[in-house]
Amino acid sequence: MNRLRSSMISDGGFLLFLLACFVSIIFTAGNPNLYLQNIIFLNVAFLIAVITYFTNVTTGLILNILFIFGYGTYTLYQTIVAGGLIGTQNYFWLILTPIFTLATWLMTLGNRQLQSENEQLIKVNQSLATVDLKTSLKNALSFQSDATVFMALSVRYHIPLTLMVISVKYWDEIKRMIGEEQLMEAVLDLSRMSQTNIRTNDSLYLLNKENPMWGMLLITDRPGASIVIDRLRKSVEERNRGEYAEKYKVELVLKMGAVEFNSAEINNPLEFIVQAKKQLEYDV
């Protein structure tokens, strides 16, 4: 409903602005003797409207008050001192210039409301999203939800559950050596490579995208996770001698650590991640 109201305000301001332009053109063209004077006032009206668009309505109102005061003083001078007559010309721009400002303010008001709502929707979408758009991998939010279920099943049915985490050695140095696009490609390539080395009932998550860290929930014990670690390490070594060496000009080396779930020591998914990350320190 708010989006519809904002859209109607913006559309109403746009239509009012077009109508004011149409009336101004007809009025200016209708009196060739005052053509130059009308063009000057029209430019002033546009200038105030543009300033209002890029600032706020308060600035526009102040400028309109100054314009009305200045133009009113000029009209009084022409009437009293020069003996001129007050006609349509004198009232037209006093009325139309504020209309231009009003129309511009309505457009900016509606647009800013729409932008604000759009930013809020983006934030809500990011906070609720469970899949990374670039890699199509489940993210940390999804991990917390899934890990809670897996941990409960592990306790109830005595199923071994191990979390393995993977990061890239010297990532900060690599970031300085290759471009942003290649960084994203490296994350994608490593994600695909990791997926091919796990079973269909295991789950892969991208826990951190800025400083890439993947998490794998493996339905196995710690020795079984060691087999997966060895398999991943060999896959990366093979690719470093082939496609990665040609593509990135640097060697991508993984740090891997794993910890088996123990209900007595691990109470929630975040603790599970912390315990697994500690194991990375031993992979040197």
From TrEMBL:
Keyword Coiled coil: no
Transmembrane segments: 12-29, 35-54, 61-85, 91-110
Top-level taxonomic group: Bacteria
Keyword Cytoplasm: no
Keywords: Membrane, Transmembrane, Transmembrane helix
InterPro entries from the UniProt entry: Nucleotide_cyclase, Rev_trsase/Diguanyl_cyclase
Protein name: GGDEF domain-containing protein
Lineage: Bacteria, Bacillati, Bacillota, Bacilli, Bacillales
